[in-house]
Amino acid sequence: MKRLRASLLIAPSAALIFLFIVLPYITVLVMSFRAPAEGQPYGEGFSLEGYTHFFNESYYAMSLPQTMFLGLLTTLVCLVLAYPVALHIAFASKRWRGFLYGIVLSPLLVGIVVRSYGWTILLGNSGVINSTLRNMGLIQKPLPLMYNDFGVVLALAHVFLPFMVLPLLSALQAMDPAITQAARSLGASRFTIFRRVTFPVSMPGVQSGCILVFVLAISSYVTPALVGGMRVKTTTLLVVDALIDQFQWPFGSAMALILAVSAGIVVLIFARLTRMKWT
After folding, report:
1. Per the domain annotation, does 12 fall within a domain?
2. Residue 99 is assigned to a structural domain of this protein
3. CA 63 to CA 149: how far, in whole Å?
4. Which of 115, 179, 186, 209 sits at 20 to 30 Å (Cα–Cα) from 133?
5. Is residue 71 part of a domain?
6. Which sign, positive or negative, has the C-alpha torsion 131, 135, 136, 139?
């Protein structure tokens, strides 16, 4: 009877997980092995052509390390920028904590398209930054701030920074202040306290934030498309191009699965390394 009750309680959530997570992945997996066809999404029978085409064509194969690099760099930039912010909010007074928390969350009220388009206005050859520097006589020709990795990483870091701050803030707020007070009473410097106490205690937040930002960054489409101007080729852009523009569902599904598996491997390696380092 208890098992039946437990099964009934789990059934709604299990059904939702299967319907919206498991079933779509199964559909993509099956589609990736379908044979390609002319004038229709897929043909009859099954084939490995989608996978072989991806790895045999350098244009597609090189997009995968490019995507991983952009995701890792965006994650690193977000971690470096978010940690001081989360640390300041965690130890701020209650009077200011809510205000600072609202500032961190405020960018989420604006759509990604609007934020990404805002960066095109700032970073473009005739944008605010280049125009200001040129009017001040500091440059003669526009700086290449857009349509490259720099612009894409900068825009992605701005978009996903709150997703790094929130897990870090949660981990830091859970830390007992008596630990740092005890370290100070024993004569430890601020850097030693941070290295030996604060950062190790906040590692769950670091892990969660890095994984979340990395997964969101490599799967982002709007920001690389607008800020990169389709010149920064990521696997996500190629997946959308194969599915919508080229109408090649098996090939697009194969690329999507390759990206998902590669991201899973990177996440597992990161989780393993950080657990070995800080446990």
Report:
1. no
2. yes
3. 13
4. 115
5. no
6. positive
